[in-house]
Specification:
α4 packs across α6 and α5 crosses α6. With 195 residues, the protein is mainly alpha-helical. It has one domain.
Length: 195
C-alpha cells in the first residue's frame, strides 16, 4: 500500500499485536518474568525486528516472483518461525555463549514474528513502511510487558484477594487489555484504509 501516513503505521503496529497473540502463546515467560527490560528481552526484540524485515524482503521480493496467492501465506508462518528460532539459537548459544536453562523465557514466541511478518507482507509497500511497522511491533511488545510488570508491582502493594494474587490477576488483566488492544487496532486498521 502506498500513501499511508507513517505515524498511522507506527501507531497501528503498536496496537495490532494484541495480548492474545503476543502473550497467549508465550504466557509462561510473561507471567514469570520479573523485569520486562532485562538484556535477554532486549536482544530478543532486536532478533524480532531483524526477522520481520528479512521475512518481508524474502516474501515480498523473492517468493512473490515465483509463487502467488495462498502458497505465500502457507509458507510464511513456518519459514518465519524457523528463521526466528534459528537466529535466536545462533545468537544466544554461539555469539553470547549464554546458559539459558536457568532463566525464564520472555514472551517472544516465534509465532509473534510470523504474525508480524504476515501483517508486513500485506500492508507494507516499501522498506521504510516495514521498518516503521517492525519498530511499532517492538514498541507494542515493550508496552505490553511494561503494563504487566506494573500490574504485578501494584498488586504487591495493594490489598488483592488471595485467590487473585499472581498468575490469575495477570491472566485477567491480559484478557481485558487484549480487548482494548484489539479494538484500537481495528479502528486504526480502518483509518489506514487497509481493510
Amino acid at each position: 500500500m502506498t500513501g499511508i501516513p507513517l505515524y498511522l503505521l507506527l501507531i497501528y503496529s503498536c496496537f495490532s499485536i494484541n495480548l492474545v497473540l503476543q502473550c497467549g502463546l508465550g504466557i509462561k515467560g510473561v507471567v514469570e518474568s520479573k523485569n520486562p527490560f532485562d538484556m535477554p528481552v532486549f536482544i530478543k526484540s532486536i532478533i524480532v525486528f531483524i526477522s520481520i524485515i528479512c521475512m518481508w524482503f524474502f516474501f515480498s521480493m523473492v517468493v512473490s516472483s515465483f509463487f502467488s496467492g495462498l502458497i505465500i501465506y502457507v509458507l510464511l508462518f513456518p519459514v518465519s518461525a524457523v528463521f526466528y528460532s534459528g537466529l535466536e539459537y545462533l545468537i544466544f548459544n554461539f555469539l553470547l555463549k549464554n546458559d539459558r536453562n536457568n532463566e525464564p523465557e520472555p514472551g517472544f514466541p516465534p509465532v509473534f514474528t510470523a504474525a508480524a511478518s504476515f501483517i508486513c507482507v500485506n500492508i507494507a509497500g516499501s522498506i521504510l513502511d516495514t521498518v516503521i511497522l517492525s519498530f511499532g511491533f517492538i514498541a507494542g511488545l515493550f508496552l505490553i510487558n511494561f503494563i504487566i510488570w506494573e500490574i504485578r508491582r501494584r498488586a504487591a502493594l495493594e490489598a488483592v484477594p488471595l485467590f487473585l494474587r499472581g498468575k490469575p490477576l495477570i491472566l485477567i488483566a491480559m484478557g481485558l487489555l487484549s480487548l482494548i488492544f484489539t479494538s484500537a487496532s481495528l479502528l486504526l486498521f480502518r483509518m489506514i484504509d487497509a481493510g
